[in-house]
Design goal:
The protein is of the alpha+beta class. It has one domain (2-118). It has helices at 49-64, 72-93, 96-106, 112-118; strands at 2-9, 23-31, 34-41. α1 runs antiparallel to α2 and α1 crosses α3. It has a three-stranded antiparallel beta sheet with strand order 1-3-2.
Length: 119
């Protein structure tokens, strides 16, 4: 199980942007307009790394976005939330196959020494 804590910024019109997926629960308010959430994800070893990466990516999108019309500034915050959540997932998971999928999809290379050290 992977648990990720992220800082969420309250967005325009009181919509909260949260940081990743699965089951999350607000921990404590970090300050005005901010809250911390813990996100858990169960990696399914019976499925491929590609499947697990995609499943977490969908959950991150679901958790980080608000429905309906929203300003571009909020969309940028949501995009950053999704990217940060997925980066954290890949780093915490520490699997080189998932890191390779992440690089192929995003072009963002994570610190491979940390991933290799985690193995």
């Amino acid at each position: 199980m992977i648990a990720i804590k992220r800082l969420a910024v309250a967005a325009v019109l009181g919509c909260a942007v949260v940081a990743a997926s699965g089951h999350f629960a607000p921990a404590a308010l970090a300050g005005p307009g901010q809250a911390t959430f813990t996100i858990t994800f169960n990696y399914d070893n019976a499925k491929s790394a590609q499947h697990n990466y995609g499943a977490f990516q969908r959950e991150a999108r679901r958790a980080c976005t608000t429905s309906g019309p929203r300003p571009i500034s909020l969309r940028r915050i949501e995009d950053a939330c999704i990217a940060g959540a997925i980066d954290s997932f890949v780093q915490k998971l520490g699997r080189t196959d998932v890191a390779a999928i992440h690089f192929d999809r995003t072009g963002r290379r994570l610190d491979s020494s940390r991933i290799l050290a985690a193995r």
